[in-house]
Amino acid sequence: MPMHKVYFRFYAELDELLSPTKRGSCLVHGFNTTASVKDVIEAFGVPPPKSVSS
Predict the structure, then answer these.
(1) Do the beta carbons of residue 29 and residue 6 sit within 8 Å?
(2) Gap between the Cα atoms of 41 and 10, Å rounded
(3) Mind listing the pLDDT tens digit for each residue in 10-45?
(4) Beta bridge mates, 26
């Protein structure tokens, strides 16, 4: 089974949450699992959004 790739690019405040070596660049994530996009983004160091209660 071929490995799929997804490319991420973070800007502004989200870019600042990444480690210095990953800032300002396109990040490539290879996968062959069913990981969610949310899980992959969090693995780069970007925290999940905070819930807003009504």
Answers:
(1) yes
(2) 10
(3) 999 889 988 899 999 999 888 777 778 888 888 888
(4) none
Residue 47, SS3? coil
Closest Cα to residue 46, out of 33, 31, 30, 23? 23
Query: Residue 19: what are its φ and ψ, rounded to 5°?
Result: -65, 150
Provide DSSP, 11-41.
-HHHHHTS-TTTTTS-EEEEESS---HHHHH
pTM of the complete model beyond 0.70: no
Q: Return phi, psi of residue 52, to 5°.
A: -105, 120
Give the pair of three-digit tokens for residue 52: 């807003």
- Residues 27, 11 contacting (CB under 8 angstroms): no
